[in-house]
Structure formats: structure tokens, C-alpha cells
């Protein structure tokens, strides 16, 4: 398995204020890795740091040579008065071969949407179209920032199944930020738990059993609620959770 991205003691900051300290992580070809953590814990900042949009304050990010990254944003602000079909949207900012955009739509199960107006799509349909657009560059790594925000639970579960299918057919790695803890635990190969630093990382089972994760999210079905009520009053240092397995 080859490394796509590796960070070494990566610290990210806005101005002089560090928001994420000393992160050691990696992403390998073909794996699905999910970043979880409370609001403001640095999840989106880490994505920005990994693609180079936010330069390292200290430490390093190493990307595989000629790494192709496809980015799926949380949502898309579309001018409601602007007529824009899905097919045209997929050809912006530059034209793409018809066979390529059609194949991308087929891969995300949205081939019937080609002539629909973007502004008339449901949340789930729009996410599929955004995913199709990210696939056009044949990415080695797909990055998704809270891709299921605004979708109901069955819609979110369906979207994660789609991600797994895309990973299988395209062979790309997937790095996503998610708040859907239960689905994340089922759909990820590895989980990174952030809170201003890398609290713990490992397989879903290892992370779910880690005291750092439980302190953040609790255990059982109330875990998701604990996410928003966390005071981070525990004392620990970043490390690999595998020692808790
Ligand atoms: N452009 C910016 N300038 C200054 N501070 C920022 C900027 N973007 C984010 N921050 C701060 O960095 C910290 C981490 O933010 P980030 O968006 O990475 O967190 P997050 O875990 O993705 O949060 P959420 O779950 O709410 O999306 C927060 O304290 C945030 O206020």
C-alpha cells in the first residue's frame, strides 16, 4: 500500500494562533479515513493544510508526486436566477469530454440528472453531482468536508454506501470530515479524532474504545450529543490509540 499524504508534527495556524498542533498522520492509497471532532476542533483546517491551501506553521506535509485530489465541498451556493444544467455545471470551468462526465454521473447513480437544473436538485442529488464533478479529474484521493450535512439519516447512509462503491470502482482513497458518528464507524477503515490536536487514531473499533474518544463523544447512542457539549477537561497527549486495543 503506498502513501498518498504524510504529515510530520504538522501545526496549522491562522496568523499567529495555532488551531491544530503536532499532527502525525497519513493516508494510504485506497483507504477510507474519516476525521471526527467537535466544532472548531480543526477538521476543515486539516483538509486545507493537506491540500496546501493553508501553509504549515511548523512541521511538514508530504504529498505523493503528482497526487490528484478531488474536493467535494459541503454545499454549493447557486444563484437561484441562474439557469445551469448539471451537464453544463460539469463542464465548468473547462470543457470535459462527454464520455467522461457521463461516466462520472453513472458512477454516482445520477445519469438521469444530466439535463436537470442545478437549483432544482434535492440535497442528496446535489451531493451526487458534486461528487461526480470531483471524480472528473480521476483523483487518487477524494476529500469531502461534511458531505452529508443537510441529508436525513437514510440519505446519509445511502451517500456513504455510494462513497464505498466509488472507492471500489475508482480505487481512490477517501478522506472525509463527518459528524455522523454511527455511519462513520461502519463505513471507515480508519478514524482520526481531533480536538486542537490528534487525540487518537486507528480502526473504528480501536477509536471507539479509546478513552480520548469516549471523553469527547461518550459511548452508545448518546455519543453524538456529547459532541456538542464537550469541555475537553481531560489531560492527554496525542498518540496512536492502538495501545488501547
Ligand atoms: N479563516 C480563518 N481565520 C481565522 N480563524 C479561523 C479561520 N478558519 C477557521 N478558524 C478557526 O480555527 C479553528 C478550527 O476551525 P475549523 O473550521 O478547522 O474547525 P472544524 O473542526 O472544521 O469545525 P466545524 O465542525 O464547526 O466545521 C476554529 O477556532 C476557527 O474559529
UniProtKB/TrEMBL annotation:
**MF term (GO), any:** ATP binding
Cleavable signal peptide = none
Matches recorded under CDD domains:
ABC_Metallic_Cations (cd03235)
Q: Name all ABC transporter domain ranges.
A: 5-220
What keywords appear on the UniProt entry? ATP-binding, Cell membrane, Ion transport, Membrane, Nucleotide-binding, Translocase, Transport, Zinc, Zinc transport
Q: Which example biological process does GO assign this protein?
A: zinc ion transport
Question: Known InterPro entries for this protein?
Answer: AAA+_ATPase (IPR003593), ABC_transporter-like_ATP-bd (IPR003439), ABC_transporter-like_CS (IPR017871), Metal_Ion_Import_ABC (IPR050153), P-loop_NTPase (IPR027417)
What name goes with this protein?
Answer: Metal ABC transporter ATP-binding protein
- Origin species, per record, is Sulfitobacter albidus
Organism ancestry:
Bacteria, Pseudomonadati, Pseudomonadota, Alphaproteobacteria, Rhodobacterales
Amino acid at each position: 500500500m503506498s502513501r498518498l499524504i504524510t504529515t510530520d508534527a504538522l501545526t496549522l495556524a491562522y496568523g499567529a494562533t495555532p488551531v491544530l498542533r503536532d499532527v502525525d498522520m497519513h493516508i494510504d492509497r485506497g483507504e477510507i479515513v474519516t476525521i471526527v471532532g467537535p466544532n472548531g476542533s480543526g477538521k476543515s483546517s486539516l483538509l486545507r493544510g493537506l491540500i496546501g491551501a493553508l501553509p504549515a506553521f511548523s512541521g511538514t506535509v508530504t504529498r505523493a508526486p503528482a497526487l490528484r485530489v478531488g474536493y467535494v465541498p459541503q454545499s454549493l451556493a447557486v444563484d437561484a436566477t441562474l439557469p445551469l444544467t448539471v451537464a453544463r455545471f460539469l463542464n465548468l470551468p473547462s470543457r470535459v469530454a462527454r464520455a467522461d462526465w457521463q461516466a462520472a454521473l453513472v458512477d454516482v447513480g445520477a445519469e438521469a440528472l444530466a439535463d436537470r437544473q442545478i437549483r432544482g436538485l434535492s440535497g442528496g442529488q446535489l451531493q451526487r453531482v458534486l461528487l461526480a464533478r470531483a471524480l472528473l479529474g480521476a483523483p487518487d484521493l477524494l476529500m469531502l468536508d461534511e458531505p452529508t450535512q443537510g441529508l436525513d439519516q437514510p440519505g446519509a447512509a445511502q451517500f456513504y454506501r455510494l462513497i464505498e462503491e466509488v472507492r471500489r470502482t475508482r480505487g481512490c482513497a477517501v478522506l472525509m470530515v463527518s459528524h455522523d458518528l454511527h455511519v462513520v464507524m461502519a463505513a471507515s477503515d480508519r478514524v482520526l479524532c481531533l480536538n486542537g490536536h490528534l487525540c487518537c487514531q486507528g480502526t473504528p473499533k480501536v477509536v471507539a474504545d479509546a478513552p480520548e474518544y469516549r471523553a469527547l463523544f461518550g459511548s452508545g447512542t448518546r455519543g453524538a450529543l456529547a459532541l456538542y457539549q464537550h469541555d475537553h477537561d481531560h489531560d492527554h497527549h496525542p498518540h496512536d490509540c492502538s495501545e488501547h486495543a
